Amino acid sequence: MSHLQALQQRMLQAVLADRPPQSRDLQDDARADTSTRLAIYRNGYRVRLRDALATEFPGLGVMMGRRFGSLLDRYVEAHPSGHYNIRWHGAGVAAFLEYGLPWRDKPALADMARLDWAISTSFDAADEPVLAAADLAGVSAHAWANLHLLLQNHLQILSTHYNVDAFRRAADRNDKRPRMRRHDAARHLLVWRQALTVHYRSIGMDELSALSGAIKGEPFAALCERLSEYHDPADALPRMASFLHRWLADGLISRWLLD
Fold first, then answer.
1. Where are the domains of the chain?
2. CA atoms within 13 Å, Cβ hemisphere of 9
3. pLDDT tens digits, one per residue of 48-98
């Protein structure tokens, strides 16, 4: 290891772990002594992490209000960034809220963090092909039963009992804070990116089942069978056709395969 690399590593530990550097690493000058100069680095590092987290979790910021800053400070202290890219520092926020005191007694906070993070990671996901309706025009009628729909890898499905999507919309639109609502039954939210815009919407149990089947690689006939559990069997195929139309319009499908 070179002298410069060794110096950088010692300074890194001094900033991250509050370890005092060796006396030769920092020197006093007319403007500030060694302790003051090191404190500037430590504070600047934490402020940058805090600002990055605030950008990644706008819905959580709306939900927590004035308490949001305190949470960010606690998270930064407990979880120094372990990645060279500051963008990934927020990966543990939802778990931090789910298991840490005093937040674990308010599960809506962890759910909100999961939605914010899903939106963020969907935006950064790699581009994939997007299937258009015209791309299915050549599929013969007898082949549809064995058709497999391959969904976008960045598509995510979240479950929550709370109206966390309302808080994210308030953050996106700069609207006033909505009232917290808890639903008796779990709600399911679909998150995906279309072009450069991330979308999120609530989905029903029938669409959830069809999407889950598609993610597992089940053929089109099996997806229709799943819908017959929620609708009259005669209505399953038309219902699946309506889902397919929307999935194509939303850009959820990357390509198709036949057995």
1. 1-106, 125-259
2. 6
3. 888 899 999 999 999 999 999 999 999 988 887 666 677 788 999 999 999
